[in-house]
Amino acid sequence: MCPVGWRDVARLASRSRRCRLGRVLRAEPAVNPRVRRAFLTPDTTGDPFGLTEANAASARHYGARILLHHEVTGLVEEQGRVVGA
Predict the structure, then answer these.
(1) Measuring CA to CA, which of 21, 23, 40, 77 is 20 to 30 A from 29?
(2) What distance in Å separates the CA atoms of residue 30 and residue 84, rounded to the nearest whole number?
(3) CA 46 – CA 53 distance, rounded (Å)
(4) pTM strictly above 0.85
(5) What is the pLDDT of residue 43?
(6) Centroid of chain to Cα 68
(7) Are strands 81-84 and 76-78 parallel, antiparallel or unpaired?
(8) Are residues 13 and 39 in contact, defined by beta-carbon separation less than 8 angstroms?
(9) What distance in Å separates the CA atoms of residue 5 and residue 39, rounded to the nearest whole number?
(10) If DSSP states are collapsed to H, E and C, what string results for 26-73?
(11) What is the pLDDT of residue 47?
(12) 14: which residues sit within 8 A by CB, 6+ positions away?
């Protein structure tokens, strides 16, 4: 189980609420259609630093290694998924 779940992330955005995925895809056509959850948050009500930290904690839990102050020059894909940079 991930120590930082979607409810934790949602709580970081103080006035956020779950949003229907169809609405998200209509409003933001570039969003990956396989997205599982989305939240609507009015401007300036969230905690972007906390959200970034929560995303990083989740990524680390699933095996990511995060390197600060590094330039990404390419991505490694396997079977249609990004597995490295």
Answers:
(1) 77
(2) 22
(3) 13
(4) no
(5) 64
(6) 18
(7) antiparallel
(8) yes
(9) 13
(10) HHCCCCCCCCCCCEECCCCCCCHHHHHHHHHHHHHHCCCCCCCCCCCC
(11) 74
(12) 45, 46, 47
Q: 10: how many CB neighbours lie within 10 A of its CB?
A: 18
pLDDT at residue 27, as a whole number: 82
Q: Are 58 and 2 in contact (CB under 8 A)?
A: yes
For the chain, the residue count is: 85
CB atoms within 10 A of CB 9: 20
Here the tokens at position 3 are: 């120590």
The 10s digit of each residue's pLDDT in 11-70 is 655 555 667 788 888 888 888 888 888 777 666 566 778 888 888 998 899 888 899 999
- Half-sphere exposure of residue 55: CA atoms within 13 angstroms, side-chain side: 8
